[in-house]
């Protein structure tokens, strides 16, 4: 079976170029050029594309990153879209306490959004979780289109990502919503991402929290009823809304918590019949989540701390970004991780290979750090040990080593 090559084309905001004409020019570039998996093009030997296209990204799942693509052996899918530049909007609603108070109930984005551009590609995991999530949504749409009887085969369009803090669970949910808005552009005119502010839904007034949950989902319902919109509802730290009911029944939690859990479960059951909605949830404390909610989740995926392989790729992506912006100056590139695993050859004496081995050593030293912390290391390395506009790759990697040592020392002191 041929693999699928996804070509995502970001059209400039001012461009009015016909889609077919744009694709015709894109195909010229891809046929004539050397294209590798994971590659992003931002400049072209084509004046029309330079005028109308911001970037073209090539991705081929289940394939080796950096591998040259043979267009004769892949199925090609093109996606043309513009990024929404409005950014985050705040959804407010009546606090329900009889006063004029309004509370920030949710954050709202129209997708694809400039806020999440490139996020999916820069989330690095050891498992195939990203591919699995996309396949999950494709299957939900297929089953809905074929009118599969949900009384016989059940699915709820609910994803639960759980694991320690800082491992990218929330970012993955946002990136998934963005990617779906792009990949399903032939079916939906746009996407809507609604991130519920769980903590704001707990009223200081007795018995109001359950009502606030109902109000929130009533607002979400307005978006879902537009069949042209793909609606992704994100509930971060879902345990705050779906705290185990056993605690409330045992008297260790207020009865209001019981109302909130019941309200959330009821609303999920009601909106699951819509084919254009996906509920994305995250949790750091899965033991606190009500089992009835866990049972409704179609995917329950653990997101752990990154392995040495993932850490190396994270650091590599950070260095590539700093080289792109001109902060790190070097003709040498960090070599892909796979080459470090091969038997040694005479090429191992090159500066690029030696620097890559040094970065690999730093990655091993960084085991146990979260993805959030790892992506701060390059910034801290520059802030503490560089402090000049431009730096060589060798000096920057040495600074990263010092930054990791300091981070580990600070963590030890804190604990």
From TrEMBL:
Residues 155-307 form the AAA+ ATPase domain. SUPFAM superfamilies: P-loop containing nucleoside triphosphate hydrolases. InterPro entries: AAA+_ATPase, ATPase_AAA_core, ATPase_AAA_CS, ClpA/B, P-loop_NTPase, Pch2-like, Pch2_C. Keywords: ATP-binding, Differentiation, Meiosis, Nucleotide-binding, Oogenesis, Receptor, Spermatogenesis. PROSITE patterns: AAA. GO terms for cellular component: chromosome; nucleus. GO terms for molecular function: ATP binding; ATP hydrolysis activity; identical protein binding. Signal peptide: none annotated. Pfam families: AAA, AAA_lid_TRIP13_C, TRIP13_N. One of its GO terms (biological process) is reciprocal meiotic recombination. Gene3D superfamilies: P-loop containing nucleotide triphosphate hydrolases (3.40.50.300). PANTHER family: PACHYTENE CHECKPOINT PROTEIN 2, PACHYTENE CHECKPOINT PROTEIN 2 HOMOLOG. Belongs to the AAA ATPase family. PCH2 subfamily. This is Pachytene checkpoint protein 2 homolog. It comes from Zootermopsis nevadensis (Dampwood termite).
């Amino acid at each position: 079976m041929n693999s699928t090559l996804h070509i995502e084309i970001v059209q400039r905001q001012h461009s009015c170029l016909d889609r077919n004409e744009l694709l015709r020019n894109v195909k010229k570039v891809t046929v004539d050029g050397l294209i590798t998996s994971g590659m992003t093009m931002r400049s072209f030997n084509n004046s029309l594309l330079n005028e109308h296209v911001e970037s073209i990204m090539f991705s081929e799942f289940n394939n080796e990153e950096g591998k040259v693509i043979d267009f004769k052996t892949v199925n090609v899918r093109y996606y043309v879209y513009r990024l929404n530049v409005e950014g985050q909007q705040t959804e407010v609603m009546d606090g329900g306490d009889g006063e004029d108070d309004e509370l920030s109930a949710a954050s709202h984005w129209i997708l694809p959004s400039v806020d999440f551009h490139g996020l999916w590609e820069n989330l690095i995991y050891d498992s195939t979780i990203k591919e699995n999530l996309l396949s999950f949504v494709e299957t939900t749409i297929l089953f809905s289109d074929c009118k599969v009887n949900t009384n016989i085969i059940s699915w709820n369009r609910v994803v639960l990502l759980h694991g320690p803090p800082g491992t990218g669970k929330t970012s993955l949910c946002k990136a998934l919503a963005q990617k779906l808005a792009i990949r399903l552009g032939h079916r939906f005119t746009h996407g809507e991402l609604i991130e519920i502010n769980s903590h704001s839904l707990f009223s200081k007034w007795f018995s109001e929290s359950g009502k606030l949950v109902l109000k929130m989902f009533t607002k979400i319902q307005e978006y879902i009823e537009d069949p042209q919109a793909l609606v992704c509802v994100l509930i971060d730290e879902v345990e705050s809304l779906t705290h185990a009911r056993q605690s409330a029944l045992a008297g260790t939690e207020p009865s209001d918590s019981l109302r909130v859990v019941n309200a959330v479960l009821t609303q999920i059951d009601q909106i699951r019949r819509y084919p254009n909605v996906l509920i994305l949830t995250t949790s750091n404390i899965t033991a606190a989540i009500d089992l009835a909610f866990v049972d409704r989740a179609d995917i329950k995926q653990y997101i752990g701390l990154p392995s040495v392989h993932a850490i190396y790729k994270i650091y590599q992506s950070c260095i590539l970004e700093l080289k792109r912006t001109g902060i790190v100056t070097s003709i040498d590139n960090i070599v892909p991780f796979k080459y470090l695993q091969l038997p040694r050859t005479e090429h191992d004496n090159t500066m690029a290979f030696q620097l890559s081995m040094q970065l690999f050593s730093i990655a091993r030293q960084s085991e146990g750090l979260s993805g959030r912390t790892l992506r701060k290391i390059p910034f801290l390395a520059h802030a503490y040990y560089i402090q000049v506009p431009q730096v060589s790759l060798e000096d920057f990697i040495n600074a990263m080593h010092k930054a990791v040592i300091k981070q580990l020392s600070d963590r030890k002191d804190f604990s």
